[in-house]
Amino acid sequence: MAITQPITLAVDIGGTGMKMLALDHHGKPLTERLRVLTPDPPTPARMLAALEKMREQMPDFDRVSVGYPGVIKQGVVLTAVNLHPKWVGFPLEAELKKRWKKPVRVANDAAIQGFAAIRGKGVEMILTLGTGLGSAIYSDGHCVPLELGHHPWLKKTYEEYVGRHGLKKYGAKKWNKLVAMAIEQTLHTFNWDHLYIGGGNTKKLKLGEHPHITIVSNLDGLMGGLALWRD
């Protein structure tokens, strides 16, 4: 059966790993998810070289969606807390467009993961528990960029308590308590109707059943890439 275009190459750049997947025009996977470890040090040159090798293993595609772990404006990287300082000011969207000769759109990685999970009604929020803390909030499906991870909380920032550093420093039991406290604070602050939680460290999370909280798959960080092309 012929594949209806356009085919989207979805890329998820993380502080620990980088993922890639091809999606059909309905957002269904056409390939298995490809994952490699993020190079050390995670400079633009080293990471782009790794992405190039990954791209060579993918089928032909028509456009590219990229999730980046930080602030992105007009395709340019503004923050790189969990990567290398050389990323700050890097024109990621333009660079990939030049290399791959395809249209490219780049957004915050948590925001993309949320697009795959949300229902599009009311106030919805996503938190991603990975190398750092990713976040995004949506009003009736419209995304509002949010960098909650670096907002002051307790004596430090959210990310320092519930990111990978906090998990290692405090241990899983205390980290779970801190995550629960952070969730409670976001509810009081943003009055969300539904919260989605993703990221690699959700496997260490013990929240119990909650009617307004959903744990989402890491695959959503790629599957949500199609949303960047909704005009």
Give helix and strand order, one letter per element, not per position: EEEHEEEHEHEEEEEHHEEH
CATH 2nd-level architecture of the largest domain: 2-Layer Sandwich
Give the integer mean of the pLDDT values: 95
Structure classification: alpha/beta
Query: CATH class of the largest domain, please?
Result: Alpha Beta
Strand share of the residues?
A: 25-35%
C-alpha-based Rg, rounded: 17 Å
**Largest pleated sheet:** 5 strands, mixed
Q: Structurally, how many domains make up the residues?
A: 2
Read across the widest sheet, the strand sequence of neighbours is: 3-2-1-4-7
Q: Say what the CATH topology of the largest domain is.
A: Nucleotidyltransferase, domain 5
What report would you give on this structure?
- This protein has 231 residues and is of the alpha/beta class.
- It is built from six helices and 14 strands.
- The protein has two domains: 8-111, ATPase, nucleotide binding domain (Nucleotidyltransferase, domain 5); 119-221, 2-Layer Sandwich (Nucleotidyltransferase, domain 5), CATH 3.30.420.40.
- It has helices spanning 44-55, 92-100, 109-117, 158-162, 164-190, 220-223; strands at 8-13, 17-23, 34-37, 63-68, 72-73, 76-77, 104-108, 123-129, 133-139, 142-145, 152-153, 156-157, 194-198, 213-215.
- Strands 3-2-1-4-7 form a five-stranded mixed β-sheet. Strands 10-9-8-13-14 form a five-stranded mixed β-sheet. Strands 5-6 form a two-stranded antiparallel sheet.
- β1 and β2 (17-23) form a beta hairpin.
- The longest helix has 27 residues, at 164-190.
- The protein starts with 7 loop residues before the first strand and ends in an 8-residue tail after the last helix.
